[in-house]
Amino acid sequence: DAGVTQSPTHLIKTRGQQVTLRCSPISGHKSVSWYQQVLGQGPQFIFQYYEKEERGRGNFPDRFSARQFPNYSSELNVNALLLGDSALYLCASSLGPGDGYTFGSGTRLTVV
Amino acid sequence: EDQVTQSPEALRLQEGESSSLNCSYTVSGLRGLFWYRQDPGKGPEFLFTLYSAGEEKEKERLKATLTKKESFLHITAPKPEDSATYLCAVLPHTGANSKLTFGKGITLSVRP
Prior knowledge:
The complex is a heterodimer of chains A (112) and B (112).
Chain A: E1 5-7, E2 10-13, E3 19-24, E4 31-37, E5 44-50, E6 53-57, E7 64-68, E8 74-78, E9 87-94, E10 102-103, E11 107-111
Parallel strand pairs in A: 2-11
Antiparallel strand pairs in A: 1-3, 3-8, 4-5, 4-9, 5-6, 7-8, 9-10, 9-11
Chain B: E1 3-7, E2 10-14, E3 19-26, E4 30-38, E5 45-50, E6 56-59, E7 62-66, E8 70-75, E9 84-92, E10 101-102, E11 106-111
Parallel strand pairs in B: 2-11
Antiparallel strand pairs in B: 1-3, 3-8, 4-5, 4-9, 6-7, 7-8, 9-10, 9-11
């Protein structure tokens, strides 16, 4: 069984640019959550989607947006990148909100 | 607001030297407490979910326990391959979304 798949694995962007990160959940899982993990810290909640609708948003600026597609895959978009956006971006899937969360390997974003 | 505090921040053990990792939490009604293992540059790997005080779960050299205020991850006779960062997270009952609140993690190093 394929786990949670994230792409790309690594990305280098320049300040001010825009980036799109992608996530494919485990087959049958309808909920996708996004987390940001800065070096030395625990993951911080960004968004949760369930059945293609936003179910929650963390304390992140409007430069961060996301969506979930009919096949339950998801994209996270970040506009006007700042140096402080450099982090490991994690996607977690679950059957539904509150069920067990399985994380992908993440996308390492470096903003220069 | 939900809070998770993990201690110590780092722990160095000799192979075979048993110890415990602590996770203290405050949450508005606990739905579940999660333990994850994270290797450098990778996503968190699920270990355990605990739901109610008094519950215990075991897996190989690891045993997780839960009280109303804290959880412990006991490591018995650790091996070098147990070296990783261990993350604790809580999931509250309340709210439309189901976001995990993580601690900063405990970095465990086991010397041969």
